[in-house]
Each structure stands twice: as C-alpha cells, then as structure tokens.
Amino acid sequence: MSSGNSILLVSCKNKSGAKKHYLPALRSAGWAETVQLVAPGDPFPDLSKTAGLLLTGGYDIHPTHWDALEPVHPLAEVDADRDAFEIPLIRAAWAQNLPILGVCRGEQILNVALGGSLIQDVPEHFGCDSERHQHGTPEVPEMHHRVQLAPGSRLRCLFGEDVFLVNSRHHQAVKRVAPPLVAVGWHLDTSHFDTGPLIEALEATDPKRWVFGVQWHPENLVTLKGPAGDAARNLFAAFAQAANQRTGLTGLEPSASPLESC
C-alpha cells in the first residue's frame, strides 16, 4: 500500500495519444498506481498527492518565455495554452522535489521553465538537412542517429551505454541550458560553431533530484530489442522506481529495476 502520494501526472495535449503511447511504458516499467492525464483547460493538479511528473512531446514553445524580443520562427507551431499550463506546473513540481521526466517537447519546456532557452529551428540554426531530425512515427519508430552520453553522468549509468541509436522527431532543441540542469547527451554530427553539438539529454545538477529530459521518444522504443530498447526500458523503470519511492511503496513489478546506483 502507498502512503498517500500515489498519482503519477502525465502532462499532454492529446489525452488519448498519451494514454496509447506513454501509459504502456509506465505500466511495463512497474508503475501500478494511478496515472492522471492533465492538459490545458484542466484544473491545476494537487501536487500533494503526486508521485512524479511526466512531460510528453508536442508542439513548439513560444520564445517569449526566454526572450521577450525574439520573434516566433516562421516554421514554429506554438502551443501557447500548453506553455501557460506546464511552466507553472514544472516550477511547482521542482519546488516539491518531485521526480520529473521530460520527453522531446517535455525536455524543452522543462529547460525553459527552469531558466533556459531554445533553438527555434534546428535546420536553420545548424545548417543541416531539414529531415535530419524528422523521421518515423510513434507507431513506426525509425532509428535515425546516435546519441553520445557524458561519461560519469547519471543518464549514462541508467542507460548502460555510451553511444546508442535513437528515433528523432523534432525541429526545436535546447540552446542555453537552465542553471539547475546540465547537458549530458548530444548528437555530435549536428553542431554549430557558437552553440556546439545539438543537445539531446539533460539531467539535474543536484544528484538528489530525479530530473531528466531526453530529446528523442523512448516511449516508442520500450518494446524493441537491443541497446535502444534497453535504454528506454531502463529510463522508465528508473522513473517508476523514483515515483514508487515517493509514494512509500516497497514493491515493484519484476520488469522494473531499481537502478539505485544511478
């Protein structure tokens, strides 16, 4: 039994899509308690009953949240309602030291909410092919490029690999990393002389916080064999473990590894 904080929040735009793509990853990772899907227009959730926060993928973030004078890029599809809902939610979850996992847009909005900025259009900024980071679908993930992880990072410990293939569906990316976070993953083949290689993963600088963000979509990889599938399963297992510890639960499903050394 739990001690009371037994709700895992999943912040999204489309609840049916989140239920289809993220809920199975959470259940297979060992989270057996309540999952509450929240979206713009819903009441602000009661975080006193929350064990963790998952920020899902979606549309773009308005640049006014990091620079009042930066115009919206012509190719951006801004979701202002979601920005307005998620930024205070992230800050409140951070203040309560909740486990937080950000996926794609979720990584980006996590960074922005904590004081970072974004590259609004990857192809324009890096001068790369417009399709370099736009491949596959949730149903048919296409393993497109490699991510290099920082040696000694907690994410490297969780994944058990230095380099592995990921799927990629985004045109925005982290630019200035928020002060409470640190970049720990990169796509080295997409690089700019000023900003360096494209950032693919973040983690909290404070090792006592379970806060991670990844630019790819691990929820689409948990059924795959090989390093990418293993990394995805380990990430969700660690998130479920952190949430279970928050609730006071002592048991995990057999598929969920505590990964306590990370």
Verbal overview:
- The two termini are 25 Å apart.
- This protein is an alpha/beta fold.
- 27% of the residues lie in helices and 24% in strands.
- Helix 3 crosses helix 4.
- The chain is globular.
- It has a 9-stranded mixed sheet, sandwiched between helices. Strands 5-10 form a two-stranded antiparallel sheet.
- The protein has one domain: Class I glutamine amidotransferase (GATase) domain (Rossmann fold).
- It contains 7 helices and 13 strands.
Could you provide a short overview of the structure?
β3, α3 and β4 (100-103) form a beta-alpha-beta unit. The protein has 262 residues and is α/β, with parallel strands linked by helices.
Topology, please?
Elements: E1 7-11, H1 15-21, H2 23-29, E2 34-38, E3 50-55, H3 80-95, E4 100-103, H4 105-113, E5 118-119, H5 122-126, E6 134-135, E7 145-149, H6 154-159, E8 163-166, E9 168-169, E10 173-174, E11 181-192, E12 196-204, E13 211-214, H7 227-247
Parallel strand pairs: 1-2, 1-3, 3-4, 4-13
Antiparallel strand pairs: 5-10, 6-9, 7-8, 7-11, 11-12, 12-13
